[in-house]
Amino acid sequence: MALGTVPQSLFCGHNPHMAKRPVPVHPLVVVFVLLSLLVPTAIRQGNNLSIWLLGTMFIALLLTFIWTKLTIRNIQIDRVHTSQARVGQPFTVGYDVQNTARFQPAFSLWIQELDTRRTWSDRFRNAVAWVMEVGPKEVVRTDTIFWPTRRGVANFDRIRVRTSFPFGMIHSSKVINQQWQVLVQPEIIQLQPSVLQAVVSDGPIGQKSMKRGRGGEEFYGIREFRSGDSLGDIAWKASSKRESLVCIERSRPSPPRLRVILDLTTPTDSLQCEEDARNTEEKTISLAASLLAEALRQGHEFALTILGVATQRDVGLRSGPRHLDRLLGALANVDLDQKRVPVSPHHLRNFERVGRVVVRPDRAQKLGISGNSWFFTGSQLNDLRMLPIEDVA
Q1: DSSP per residue over 267-319, as a string?
Q2: Domains parsed from the chain with CATH numbers
Q3: Res 203: pLDDT
Q4: What pTM does this model have?
């Protein structure tokens, strides 16, 4: 390097972390700076150019004020619920923006949910929607994405729409009261398939499938040969066309059945956990929801029993996405601040002939359930989740 030369990296931003981003300046700040320069000049000199510039700026401010007021007065907004709210997944909210003016269009509208009473901001990350243009007597749909962060009930009540078109110097806003309640479902973690396969597998605590139909000579189909099948059940003609033996299915087995028992009978202050007790309870609820979702994914019939808190009644063993949504709604409505209710004997009925999973925040208490069950705690959620491919490799 020659003497007296300066490294080029000092001028070219060689380090990308040292590059400076331009800082936006509000147009109103620029107006005040220009006014502070033009007003003394117009008063002292009184020339036509300075007076014309000063008058043009005041007219621009006046036109902006009048336009924004007229625009915002004619705007109506209807909130549209377009997706299911679940922790960890994007929640899309739509807004139907209507311009009731006969001739005046609306430009650059910003829409935001207000929460002065903190009824939803602790469960969602705030978001803002934007509309570029709404013509006269026109309705435009715009969407924005909220990110749910906590399970529970969120109440939205007010929407604010504002605009600062055309010059951005003055903005006008309008608040629209519109009540809306959103039920945020708990987070669902994809579990390892082997978790449920162990619960509903053959054995003393396994699937215990019930046979439907009267058996005998009725024919429901053919299946592969299993250990214990008699020679009379083998379909010899069908087996001759294959490389393995197949048997006649004379009864229709039900799909595997699973009952998830969420035990919340122990109050939060009495839990014996290494981490935060309330956070462990939320993980426990998320684990119960993940087990139900995995049961649906594997084609099982499933049910949910919640112990310790007041919830909706048990709807029994079923399957399907609607049944899962109903059970996830019950988990979303669980209020961990209410007084815990002790377990009564009638809460433990209908636990026969199913694979049972008991989920608790800790292992301090045992339930009086007859038979065999699997027990999990909320702290095991990370151990049961499906690992990414790169971690498995």
Answers
A1: -GGG---SS-HHHHHHHHHHHHHHHHHHHHHTT-EEEEEEESS--PPP--SB-
A2: 72-184 (2.60.40.10), 211-253 (no CATH), 256-392 (no CATH)
A3: 41
A4: 0.73
